[in-house]
Amino acid sequence: MNIRVIILLFCLIVFVGGKKVHRFRLERRSHRHHKIPHAHLHLQFRNALRRKYGFTPLRTVNAVNVTSEAGKGTVITEPLINSYDTNFFGVVSVGDQSFTMQFDTGSSDFWVPSSHCRFCIKTCGNKFFRVSNSKSFRSSGTPFSITYGSGSVKGIVASDNVGFGDLKIQNQGIGLVNISDSCSVFDGIAGFAFQQLSMTKSVPPFQQMIDQQLVEQPIFSFHLKSGSSDGGSMILGGSNSSLYYGPLTYTNVTEAKYWTFKLDFIAVHGKGSRSSHSGNKAIMDTGTSLIVGPVLEVLYINKDIGAKHNKTYNLYTVSCESIPQLPIIVFGIAGKEFFVKPHTYVIRYDNFCFSAFMDMLGLQYWILGDAFMRENYVEFDWARRRMGIAPAV
Ligand SMILES: *[C@@H]1O[C@H](CO)[C@@H](O)[C@H](O)[C@H]1NC(C)=O
Ligand SMILES: *[C@@H]1O[C@H](CO)[C@@H](O)[C@H](O)[C@H]1NC(C)=O
Ligand SMILES: *[C@@H]1O[C@H](CO)[C@@H](O)[C@H](O)[C@H]1NC(C)=O
Ligand SMILES: *[C@@H]1O[C@H](CO)[C@@H](O)[C@H](O)[C@H]1NC(C)=O
Ligand SMILES: *[C@@H]1O[C@H](CO)[C@@H](O)[C@H](O)[C@H]1NC(C)=O
């Protein structure tokens, strides 16, 4: 496989209710258009996904019952696949057809590409949903579209049964995409943010799981793993205390659209902390590879770790040899400190190494993506509108 690829960094700009919201994704493309090494890799790794941990009722963690549904339903552990430490995804069924989905806490829609898609690139190895193969499929005929910086997905809103392992949602509102102009390592996206962001105006999958009493607790958790195709897991309906150290530190969701919270500071260890210009707002986003922030703050952090701006890629590069000497970055949340080590915040492709701290002109807050969560376990508490964070095992 050709590892020497051109690295293309682009941002996804999602328009939510007419307001522009920036989201980011890291993609690597070969110079031959549409030929992404990711696609081959993830097909190869697909079998690894079949490993399932089974039912895991965890009554010891989070002993307080939040809703009347507590005690019913189950907890499932959904294995994740890691692609280059920058993309994490798992397998979901839609109308009994299986798809590789990105579980995205930064959006609220569930969409898959349609086999009727005439404007999709069909040579990337992606799967397409066949309406004729599903008895439970219902189309509403209502159009939807989500616009990204690099293009858009468009289609119609429909519904079908959606399965996360043995956890089966009846009549999940889905977007059936019939226009999509880029190849992706996953087939579709399963959004885990709140309903207010939904472009298909559907009840998000996790709210459905709660409403249909499928999950034991209204909680899901992410444990991301680095360094191999084993991407860790997403736990639906609970948490697993074997996957983190010490107690969880809780921080309230300040606005239930994204998983928004108050980030007290980001500091480079040994360099002191700087006052924040971002108004301390941050979003926890599994669908973003890196850690993205306001231009000046990102500049200061990268300066402190000795990263140099590279105009070609609009990224801060570091020498790969320097990684062991680089400082730890400290994140202050809810009165506690969380850490990200250099081998996590430096992304390495061959001999090209760059800092995960990426800026975005005009961005007024921080987006903590996979680079943060690969070292820190996060429990997303849907009903209590809070997140529990602890160093990951
Ligand atoms: C929690 O995670 C550990 C480590 O991966 C695993 O061995 C254990 O089975 C999990 N517990 C449950 C109840 O799933
Ligand atoms: C939670 O609910 C379960 C089942 O309804 C019950 O057995 C348990 O005692 C409750 N726990 C608390 C802390 O209220
Ligand atoms: C694709 O979706 C759009 C709505 O975004 C709809 O107007 C159009 O008819 C659809 N095309 C096909 C071939 O289904
Ligand atoms: C978080 O929210 C809960 C419930 O709304 C509230 O009781 C608690 O005081 C909040 N915690 C902080 C630190 O604001
Ligand atoms: C950016 O990095 C690439 C790869 O190392 C290098 O070829 C290019 O010259 C760099 N560009 C700048 C402006 O430093």
TrEMBL record:
Keywords: Disulfide bond, Signal. GO terms for biological process: egg chorion assembly; proteolysis. The active site is at 104, 285. It comes from the Eukaryota. Coiled coil: none annotated. GO terms for molecular function: aspartic-type endopeptidase activity. It holds the Pfam family Asp. Residues 88-390 form the Peptidase A1 domain. Residues 1-18 form the signal peptide. GO terms for cellular component: lysosome. InterPro entries: Aspartic_peptidase_A1 (IPR001461), PEPTIDASE_A1 (IPR033121), Peptidase_aspartic_dom_sf (IPR021109). Disulfide bonds join 320-353. Belongs to the peptidase A1 family. This is GM16822. It comes from Drosophila sechellia (Fruit fly). The gene is Dsec\GM16822.
